[in-house]
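Before a colleague's protein record goes any further, I have to sign it off. Thanks in advance; the entry in question is below:
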Amino acid sequence: MTSNRLIECVPNFSEGRDMGKIKQITDEIESVEGVMLLDVDPGRDTNRTVVTFVGDPDSVCEAAFRAVSIAARVLDMSKHTGAHPRMGATDVCPLVPVAGVTMEEAAEYARKLARRIGEELSLPVYCYESAAFEEKRRNLANVRAGEYEGLKKKLEDPAWKPDFGPARFDAGAGAVIVGARDFLVAFNINLNTTSTRRANAIAFDVRERGREKREGNPVTGKVVKDAEGNPVMIPGSLKAVKAIGWYIPEYGFAQISMNLTNMGITPVHIAFDEVSRKAEARGVRVTGSELVGLIPLSSMLEAGRYFLHRQQRSAGVSDEELIRTAVRSMGLSELKLFNPEEKIIEYILADKNRKKLVDLSLSSFVWETSSDSPAPGGGSVAAAMGALGAALGTMVANLSGHKRGWDDRWEEFASWAERGALMQKRLLDLVDEDTEAYNGILKAFELPKKSDEEKAARSAAVEAATLNASLVPLTVMKEAFKVFELLEEMTAKGNPNSVTDGAVGVLAVRACIRGAFLNVKINVRGLKDRSKAEELIAEALVIDEAAARLEVEIIERVSGQLAI
């Protein structure tokens, strides 16, 4: 995707068995330029398909309108049955801001989409969450109460007049609910029971809304009501969570179906563990889980760290290992193999055509460097050496956390390893950033220079690209210098058997900083702004001199430890 403004749309269609009909809808979505279809997730027993696509706001709204239109034509709600609550052929159609779009802007786009659906398709439309016009309609459960079967009566109630479109019952299409919301994760947890009642009991234990308070017997007792006649609720243990229990014949067991509406409050790993505890208390076991739709990368990495820390292990490992840990820990592949490339939103949006240097094998990177192309060159190699220095420090921290007799120090070393892993990732990013900066200069020089206006624009572009090419190696120096703290700590307090690994890391980081400094020097020569050039050189010199002192101090201390 090339747009700087991205919105995700996650419409839920009331059809999960006839994939021919679903394909008609998704084909319509894909026909809109500027939209990328990310995921199609049908459920046979829920008889519902969750579709996810992304793009610039106007293109997404156009694709959503077309999808709602064709769903109204090809789906017949009068014949629909399924385990999931629903009110229409397109049951819900939320817009989710992804990049460069505020929630307020997403809400306005949702309202415009809702108006168009109501006016052009003559369907009743309700707005929910951030697009809602009144507080009682913010909550999806309130809007959908009564479901399709109660929709005709609902439309006759003036209090539930649609926000857009006619208050007329359409037996085939039902109603559409359009909204704007934060990223929501649909997460189902598998149980070793076939009992919907037990599954619901666990769902009520954990969901924020909880369960109705009853007099005497908590199951059969009379519902306690407040002064206004509303049921008094006993809140569940998890905030920002909606949940119900259901039985899935296709799988042969019950699930807790959850919507995690704020991952900052209740992330997937906390939800999984809490359901596991509540299930255990009721004699039921969790056997795995299922992710419906997509999930942000940060959520999977956070889950991996959480489960590693529970084992008293360092999370200073690769993203791939953190994801594998999360998948294994939550049993995300129990029903279907969890493929990160298909389920993590950042991986799907990544430009597959862009060849990154850091994704090459070591031998390929070496041979690419030795080719007759000027990039990658010394700047990228310097950043790579810095990343290797950080990796050695991280390795010593991880090894120290496993050293026999040092079990009580695992948190100390895990903290260092995780900091080292972040340093390593940043320096790896700079391997490609340095080459991109050099290519930016080449592109600037390729700009036309016939007219005075073109010459001025070209000159400004070359100056900006040259400044960027000077700032990147300076950033390499700054990021690499941070690694000295890790290496100093590990060579002094880490596993003594790995002290030379830390020392090699020091030498690699020193070479990185020295090499990046040389790149700053050669690149600033092209700057017309000489005061800026002198400022950058002065800043780089301070870092280089400090790095030289630290190298001597650490290597001399390590050499003393190795004296025979």
